[in-house]
UniProtKB/TrEMBL annotation:
InterPro entries, alphabetized: AAA+_ATPase, ABC_transporter-like_ATP-bd, ABC_transporter-like_CS, P-loop_NTPase
CDD domains named in the record: ABC_DR_subfamily_A (cd03230)
UniProt entry keywords in alphabetical sequence: ATP-binding, Nucleotide-binding, Transport
A Pfam family per the record: ABC_tran
Family, similarity comment: Belongs to the ABC transporter superfamily.
Positions of the ABC transporter domain: 6-232
Protein known as: ABC transporter ATP-binding protein
Amino acid sequence: MHKPVLLVEGVDKSIKGQHIVRDISLTMQQGSVLALCGGNGAGKSTLLRMVMGILQPTSGIIQVDGLSWKENRNAYADKLGYMPDDYAFAKGLTAWETLHFWASLRGLSRSRTEEALEEVGLAEVRNKNVTAFSKGMRQRLLFAQAMLAKPPLLVLDEPTNGLDPYWMDSFVELVNKLRREGHSVIYSTHQLPVAEASADYVLFMQEGAAVRQGTVASLLEQYGPGGLHAAFTESRMKPGSRGQVEA
Ligand SMILES: Nc1ncnc2c1ncn2[C@@H]1O[C@H](COP(=O)(O)OP(=O)(O)OP(=O)(O)O)[C@@H](O)[C@H]1O
């Protein structure tokens, strides 16, 4: 088997005495899509920030393509594209200027900026000031930014938050395209139908711990028409296996 794109082994995180992430282990192979699901405060964003190297685990190992953040931060960062759950855009810049600024930081061409704006349906409003954008439009711009450099692993924190149903479907299509091109995607979501439609694997978190995980196909087979919602409800009532996700 190839080296995993993402390896998370026995990761814990405590902040100010609060145990926020508990003993999470998972591996992701190239071209796989993993959805992190769970209620508010379950620890999803904290786990994603640790994958990004923004936060360091209290204990455990995280590697991206065999690299650790501590040993080689620049090479590690080059493997990743990140969409944060919240972002304060610079005032006074248009969508084009904002995305082109990020593209130039990464040494990317103007045509890649154009293409990314097209991909998220913002080409027509490229000259509009980003501070006048709706929440969904800002989300799409952040998604374009994460995809810009076409990194091996995309880390998306609640990417469909604020999207209308049309763009929710477009998000699913974009993730499928990324998968076909060999990218891996890990994202958090409260929208279980989105996870059903776009993820290969799902990990349910509660109070920082993995309470259920598996392939989307196996969970749908197990829970029938209730789908991931039924799996989520049951995992909250009686937390199940806490083994390792192999995505
Ligand atoms: N810097 C911090 N200091 C103290 N507590 C924190 C910090 N960051 C996160 N927490 C706490 O850790 C827990 C998990 O937060 P996190 O944002 O990871 O959850 P989440 O699953 O992403 O939630 P949501 O779905 O609401 O976005 C919460 O109780 C939160 O208050």
